[in-house]
């Protein structure tokens, strides 16, 4: 099961906080993934198609509880994609037109509403239920082990902007992208995604996302430390190679026995331990020397080798 399906399954089990929440949620599901057909005055029918069983289950449950409408269900299988598709049909029924008006999908005398049903969204709990239905109908959330991305696809620019207003009222800042005749409302911020999932009632899903983020943060911290250590090691290795070359030159031109005792000690330790850092070499000195002291011995060696000598 995809992470999107897991989130929708959890949301399908969230109960509304007031009797009007069910109307707001059903309105969003029907409007976003339903197709409305018209065959004359008062003669409407609806088809709702979804690949998510939780959405089909919620659609049928709410339709029966609120309006007691007939809702034949057909389950179709795709051998190519190995998926199921649930087709819910609400055939022509005398009371269907009034029910669609009640859901804010139809406007009497004007046909299909182009905006969101604001008359159903007066309460905060109803706005959360409406967004929950919208996500169940047209939402997608990427597996948080990859990128953080959540979107809700809707048709109609006015409807998309209305849904964004509802999200903003919930403290969620979303962006809008036009895509092949539809509008994708999307979030990429981890904090915004978690805030939205929690607002919709997906507490378990929000915890799962937060857990993955903590794991990502830990891995990133480990990677940064490893990369820093590797970079330090590379620099240390390069510096050691330069020091060994300097020591060879000092031996050829000056002779190691002629060097000051502290510098000679450094040369002997560096040759014996080319892989160690200056700090580690300093700990092997007698008496132990700091990293700064060892660096000054290198500078002193450079000065001795580079100083002019009588021919």
UniProtKB/TrEMBL annotation:
SUPFAM superfamilies named among the record's database cross-references: Homing endonucleases
Classification of source organism: Bacteria, Bacillati, Actinomycetota, Coriobacteriia, Coriobacteriales
GO biological process, one term: cell division
DOD-type homing endonuclease domain sequence ranges: 107-172
Single GO MF annotation: endonuclease activity
Protein encoded by which gene: whiA
Name of the molecule in the record: Probable cell division protein WhiA
Coiled-coil regions listed in the entry: none
Pfam family, one: WhiA_N
């Amino acid at each position: 099961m995809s992470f999107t399906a897991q989130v929708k399954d959890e949301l399908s089990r969230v109960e509304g906080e007031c009797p009007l929440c069910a109307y707001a949620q059903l309105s969003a599901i029907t409007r976003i993934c339903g197709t409305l057909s018209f065959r004359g005055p008062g003669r409407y029918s609806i088809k709702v198609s979804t690949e998510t069983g939780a959405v089909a289950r919620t659609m049928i449950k709410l339709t029966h509880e609120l309006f007691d409408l007939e809702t034949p269900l057909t389950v179709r299988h795709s051998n190519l994609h190995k998926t199921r598709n649930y087709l819910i049909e609400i055939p022509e029924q005398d009371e269907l037109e009034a029910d669609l008006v009640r859901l804010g999908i139809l406007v009497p005398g004007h046909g299909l509403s182009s905006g969101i049903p604001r008359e159903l969204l007066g309460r905060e709990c109803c706005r959360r239920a409406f967004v929950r239905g919208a996500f169940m109908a047209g939402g997608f959330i990427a597996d948080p082990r990859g990128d953080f991305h959540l979107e809700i696809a809707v048709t109609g620019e006015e409807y998309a902007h209305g849904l964004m207003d509802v999200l903003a009222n919930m403290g969620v800042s979303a962006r809008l992208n036009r895509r092949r005749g539809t509008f994708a409302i999307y979030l990429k911020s981890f904090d915004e995604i978690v805030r939205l999932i929690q607002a919709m009632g997906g507490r378990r899903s929000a915890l799962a996302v937060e857990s993955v983020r903590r794991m990502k943060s830990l891995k990133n911290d480990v990677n940064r430390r490893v990369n820093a250590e590797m970079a330090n090691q590379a620099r240390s290795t390069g510096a050691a190679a330069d020091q060994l070359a300097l020591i060879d030159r000092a031996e050829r031109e000056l002779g190691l026995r002629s060097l000051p005792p502290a510098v000679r000690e450094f040369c002997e330790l560096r040759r014996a331990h080319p892989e160690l850092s200056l700090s580690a070499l300093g700990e092997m000195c007698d008496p132990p020397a700091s990293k700064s002291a060892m660096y000054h011995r290198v500078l002193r060696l450079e000065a001795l080798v580079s100083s002019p000598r009588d021919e």
